[in-house]
Amino acid sequence: MAIHPKKRKFTVYLDPEVEKALADFAARRDRSQSMIAEAAIASFLSPDDAERREAVVAKRLDQMDRRLSRVERDVGISVETMAVFIRFWLATTPTLPEPAAKAARVKVSERYEAFITALGRRLAQGPKLSQEVSEDIDRPARAAGFAK
Fold first, then answer.
1. What is the 3-state secondary structure (H, E, C) of the chain?
2. How far apart are CA 88 and CA 54, in angstroms?
3. How many C-beta neighbours within 10 Å does residue 59 have?
4. For 116, left (φ over 0), alpha (ψ -120 to 50), or beta?
5. Which residues, other chains included, contact 26 with Cβ-Cβ below 8 Å and sequence gap of 6+?
6. Per residue in 19-56, pLDDT tens?
7. Dist. CA 40–CA 38, nearest whole Å
8. Within 13 Å, how many C-alpha atoms sit on residue 90's CB side?
9. Is the pTM of the predicted complex or chain greater than 0.85?
10. Please, which residues have CB within 8 angstroms of residue 43's CB and are 6 or more apart in sequence?
C-alpha cells in the first residue's frame, strides 16, 4: 500500500458558472468537489491527455468518413437509377398522336400527385433503394458461397 503525503490546500478562483457545474457534478457523483477538481487538473496536465483527445477526435473523424462514404454511395446509386430509368423510358415510350397527347396532358397533375404520394409513403416506410440494391447484390454472392 502506497503512503501518500498529506495533501496541501490550494485556492483557485472560478467563474460562478464553473463553480456551479463543479458542485452539481460532485453532487451527482457523490464525490467531493476537491476530488473532482484534482482529477480534472491531473487529467489536464497529464502528458497523454493530448493523445487521448487526439484519439477521440480521430475515432469521430473515422465515423464521419464512413458515413460520408455511405452517402456518396447512395447518391451515386440514385443518379445511376435516374439515368437508367430516363434512358429506358426515352427508348421505349412512343410519341403519342395529338389527340392522345392532349388527353395525357390533362392527366399529368393527377398522375404526378399519385407519384408524390407513393414516393412519400415509400420514404416513410422503407425499405430504401440502397438497401434493396445491397440485398440484391449480396444474394448471388451468398448463393455462390461468398457470404460476408
1. CCCCCCCCCCCCCCCHHHHHHHHHHHHHHCCCHHHHHHHHHHHHHCCCHHHHHHHHHHHHHHHHHHHHHHHHHHHHHHHHHHHHHHHHHHHHCCCCCHHHHHHHHHHHHHHHHHHHHHHHHHHHHCCCHHHHHHHHHHHHHHHCCCCC
2. 50
3. 10
4. alpha
5. 32, 33, 35, 36
6. 999 999 999 999 999 999 998 888 888 778 778 888 88
7. 5
8. 6
9. no
10. 49
Give the position of cell 440502397: 130
Which cell numbers in the block locate residue 139?
A: 444474394
Cell, residue 140: 448471388
C-alpha cell at 132: 434493396
User: 65 is written with which cell numbers?
Assistant: 468518413
